[in-house]
Amino acid sequence: MPSDAPDRDTAVAREHAVSFTLNGERVRCQVPARTHLGDLLRGTFGLTGVHLGCEHGVCGACTVLVDGRAVRACLMLGVQAEGATIETVEGLSESGRIRDLQDAFHARNALQCGYCTPGMLVTAAELLAECAGEIPSREAIRAAISGNYCRCTGYHAIVDAIATTAEARAARETAE
Amino acid sequence: MSTDPGGLTFLDRPNSYIGRSVPRPNARRLLEGRGVYVDDVAMARLGHVAFLRSPHAHARILSLETGAARAMPGVIAVVTGRELAEVCTPWIGVLGHFKGLRSAPQHALAVDRVTWVGEPFCAVVARSRAEAEDALALIAVEFEPLPAVVDMETALDPGTPAIHPDLGDNLAFERVLDVGDVDAAFRDAACVVEETFRFGRHTGVCLEPRAIMADWAAADGMLTVHHSFQAPHMMQDILAKHLSLPEGAVRVICRDVGGSFGIKVHIYPDEMATCALALMLKRPVKFVADRLESFQSDIHARDHRVTARMAFSAEGDILAVDMDDLTGIGPYSVYPRTSAVEANQVVNLTGGPYRHRHYRARARVVLQNKAPTCQYRAVGHPIATMVAEGLVDLGAARLGLDPFAVRERNVIRDDAYPCAGVSGIKLETLSHQAALAKLKAMMDYEALRAEQAALRERGIHRGIGLAAFIEITNPSAAFYGVGGARISSQDGCTIRLDPQGGIVAAVSVTEQGQGTEAIIAQIVATATGVPIEKVRVISGDTQATPYGGGTWASRGAGIGGEAAWQAGKALRENVVAVAGAILQADPASLDVRGGAVVDAATGTERMPLAELGRIVYFRPDTLPPGVQPEFVATRHYVPKDYPFAFTNGVQASYVEVDPETGFVRLLKHWCVEDCGTVLNPLLVDEQIRGGIVQGIGGALFEHCLYDADGQLLNGSMADYLVPMAGEMPDIAVAHVVSPTASSEIGAKGAGEAGTAGAPAAVVNAINDALRPFGARVARQPVTPEVVLEALGLI
Questions:
Q1: Residues in A touching B754 (Cβ below 8 Å)
Q2: Which stretches make up the 2Fe-2S ferredoxin-type domain (chain A) (predicted)?
Q3: Averaged over B308-327, what is the pLDDT?
Q4: What is the ipTM of this complex?
Q5: pLDDT of B4 strictly over 60
Q6: Could you tell me which chain A residue has the CA closest to the CA of B36?
Q7: In CA terms, which of B120, B479, B671, B762 is 20 to 30 Å from A103?
Q8: CB contact under 8 A, B513 and A107
């Protein structure tokens, strides 16, 4: 609840123009100063795969890629998107870049309610990209996704699915 | 398990999907971010509501000045408790079969008195949530703080004021059970152990907060409610009652639900207020709890103090249990399930796996000025299991016996069923002995003990903890219906065969990620003989599914699944009857397999369902005279011969305790459980694993902390800890299969098992590690501080 009542209209609610690249498309919009990136992506662009779980940067459900790095959309203001390249689970799905990871999650039932899933996939995608063909240990996977809360699965299946994907990617690279 | 008319059992049907790890068909869209949760549903003219919530644990509202808020940009309405009460009637959370249970009338928005920090008492509806919150800040409230009842231990003291003066005191409910001759058993016992166990308050922390959007279409006389909820028909009934609408004027839709665990099956004041506001304003209104609101106003659970003792013979026979449970439930018993159920379950379940015949239990449920508590995953089970299993370990240690051996000695024998548990619960068929044997082999118990001993020599302190438990599943009307609650215990499934041979199945049980829709698809595909790819499942819509209870208390598969099986069989009979008439064959000689009518004896295809569908729907003129195809079938099911289908299991935990820091490292966890027929091993195992980690959360991390004034101290995810991936162990799961004979599919529930046993297994493991220090813990969550206190280091 805001406590800075008097000057609110003039400062925090003032709209600013931003332009950035969103899931491969150049976009432009007006955004109030106080609107975080998660609300901007959901509200203005209908990217409802960006899930808001805590809006304190803890749960990880709103994780998106900003210039290739996993970022909490709730901890970044919309105006800070200026000039950035942003990818959400929708974009990653449409491009097919994480298809193998999604298949592994599906086969292993590494999701239940699905609310943490987009953020979990984005974080896992970043981990797999960083590993570049190396297979991370289960401990490394657990550490990497420790900023993404899941209340349903107990994490075991998620770790399995990420490990399976890493192994398959490594095997593919070896074969190539 | 009975045989179906085709001469084949449920498991043996050709092309059966039962027992196969079929991935969930509806999970794909969740993986692509295409789930539709309440906050994702777009609606024109939408108003967003924000609530003013009490900053006091207990206070009288002297005045409320809303003029400045009403003048703010974007504000549609400011509504006080008094104004809302003209549209939404109050409720009282009691049940007839809980004799003596008392509570007070509760309003959607508090009218003149607030009773916990976070109770809503005024609403602002605006064009955006941000604007609504801007306006909230301008509402001036004058409170007269009242004495707050915070500590449940003193809630019943004569000097403590009654939260609701009309009730006279703060005792909401008391139950006493006295079976056998407890005093004599303790008097004659070789060994008596006693402990006081404390169970901190925690809450569900669903990742998707509670959310509801209500749209009153005055022209249609229809209130459409999108709700993140487990029981749509219950919500429909209650909205109709308290908003004075006919049942048919309320439609509740539950699409994707981002976690529930029992949190989203209760009546919440802010959600009722949201629907009332939609009626008042004649436009859609949405409420999505933010995380602080979730911690302040989602139901909490546990908050028990149990003092208990157990009597043993010198050989290690459990002779008797005597326990006293005190629990604080907040200022109101929650509507409509009440807040007395957890304590009642503790009485019913404590010591449930064992053979002793002397048992005394008292449970007292007291009111206090904290957030209301109610049923959360594994209601009462983790408490009952901890109490009994903690005492079993204490007794084993005192008698110098192996804790595994003491359990093997005392569990009810697998050949003793059906029988009654000592609390009077009816047990159809359980498998404690088989489960213990399987667990012992799976964890290689002897080798683990040897490793533990060897490491102890090197100053590494590891512990092994065990927890046998029973679990309540498949509840009949005995749970709520007999007490007068309008909560359906029966469920239904309607199946339609479409022209191309596809199936649409509408079920009244609901999906929150467990895989309800997947197992319904498996069952329907198996029953009808249609490939699972051609089965679509509809759930979570009061206007589109049969009437039913929804998903809670581990009932989706066992009850909803049986309804689907019976509906599928009925449809198949209808199909072969029509096919027989067309093919001039005896319907009894036909079956449906792989999407075609076949000769039952040889499997030879006689007619694809698509051809049958074409004739039935588009050329009915060519059907033989007198043949009227009915390609829709509906069946309902409710368990009748047992009030509940009890299941059983046993868990083990292996931990390492650092005696200098008090940190506990979880090394490995095992669970063997028996949910009857395993419909989908992939889904069941993940239910168990998820449940275990939720149980570990309560055992080690999760705690709603209040100060002496009743202020919640940790209302954010940064302050309230939940299990994270890095701290959780890998979890091995196995099953014993004892199907219930109450239904043809033989499935019992599995949703509570993990949470029921995990805390006791982990805490027993910690105490096993601490045993050389002569220290033990009995207060959850077992934080490093609790361990260090036990070690006398702080």
A1: 154
A2: 16-92
A3: 98
A4: 0.97
A5: no
A6: A48
A7: B671
A8: no
Q: Which among A93, A105, A143 is the nearest to B726, CB-wise?
A: A143
Among the listed residues B186, B34, B204, B33, the one whose alpha carbon sits nearest the alpha carbon of residue B720: B204
Contacts of A112 in chain B (CB under 8 A): 259, 512-515, 686, 690
Distance between start and end Cα atoms, chain B: 58
Q: Is residue A159 part of a domain?
A: yes
Residue B520 has pLDDT above 90, yes or no: yes
pLDDT of residue B14: 83
Q: Is A3 on the interface with B (CB under 8 A)?
A: yes
| In a domain? residue B22 | no
Alpha-carbon gap, residue B626 to B589, rounded angstroms: 21
* A 63-82: CB under 8 A from B: none
Same domain, A59 and A36: yes
What pLDDT digit, counting tens, does each position of B234-285 carry?
Answer: 999 999 999 999 999 999 999 999 999 999 999 999 999 999 999 999 999 9
Q: Residue range B177-196: average pLDDT? A: 98
CB contact under 8 A, B725 and A151: no
Closest by CA to B542, choosing from B575, B571, B510, is: B510
Quick one: A116 and A74 in the same domain? no
- Quick one: B147 exposed, middle or buried, by C-beta within 10 A (0-12, 13-18, 19+)? exposed
| Interface size, chain A vs chain B, as Cβ–Cβ contacts under 8 Å | 190
CATH code, B213: 3.90.1170.50
- Using the Cβ of A95 and the Cβ atoms of chain B, whether some distance falls under 8 Å is answered with no
- For the segment B149-164, the average pLDDT, to the nearest whole number, is 97
In chain A, the number of structural domains is 2
CB B254 within 8 A of CB B264: no
Kindly report, residue by residue over B572-621, the tens digit of the pLDDT.
Answer: 999 999 999 999 999 999 999 999 999 999 999 999 999 999 999 999 99
Tell me which amino acid residue B633 is: A
For chain B, how many structural domains are there in total? 3
Would the CB atoms of B717 and A59 count as touching at under 8 Å? yes
